[in-house]
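Good morning,

Attaching, inline, the C-alpha cells for the sequence recovery test we're adding to the shared suite. The designed sequence is right after.
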C-alpha cells in the first residue's frame, strides 16, 4: 500500500481514473475468504488525508483495536491454559508471522524478548 508522497504522486499520475481504480492501483486491496477482492476505501482515504498533512483521531489509531475500541492492555488465561496476545497488539508493534521471541519468566510476570534482541530491564 502506498503512503505519503508516493501515494500523492500515484493519485496525480492516474488523474481521472475511477475511485475503484485509484484504490486498487495504490494497493488498498485485500482478499475475502471466498477469494474475491475487497477494496479498502477507508484505509485509502485515511492514508490520502495523512499524506496531505491531515490526521484523523489521536496518535494515528495507536491503542485502538478492531471496531475502534480502545485496547484494555489486559490478557486473560483461556480455559485451555493458553494466553493470547491479540492481533491489535501485534499490529501496534509491527510484528509479522514468524517473528520469534524468547519467553522470560519472572516473579508473576512474563516478558517476550525478540530472539537475538537485548532484554530491557
Amino acid at each position: 500500500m502506498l503512503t505519503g508522497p508516493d501515494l500523492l504522486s500515484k493519485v496525480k499520475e492516474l488523474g481521472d481514473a475511477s475511485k475503484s481504480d485509484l484504490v486498487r492501483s495504490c494497493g488498498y486491496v485485500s482478499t475475502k475468504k471466498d477469494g474475491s477482492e475487497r477494496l479498502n476505501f477507508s484505509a485509502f482515504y485515511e492514508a490520502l488525508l495523512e499524506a496531505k498533512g491531515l490526521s484523523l483521531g489521536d496518535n494515528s489509531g495507536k491503542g485502538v483495536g478492531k471496531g475502534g475500541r480502545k485496547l484494555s492492555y489486559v490478557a486473560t488465561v483461556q480455559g485451555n491454559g493458553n494466553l493470547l496476545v491479540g492481533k491489535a497488539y501485534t499490529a501496534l508493534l509491527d510484528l509479522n508471522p514468524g517473528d520469534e521471541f524468547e519467553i522470560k519468566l519472572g516473579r508473576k510476570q512474563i516478558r517476550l524478548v525478540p530472539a537475538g534482541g537485548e532484554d530491557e530491564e
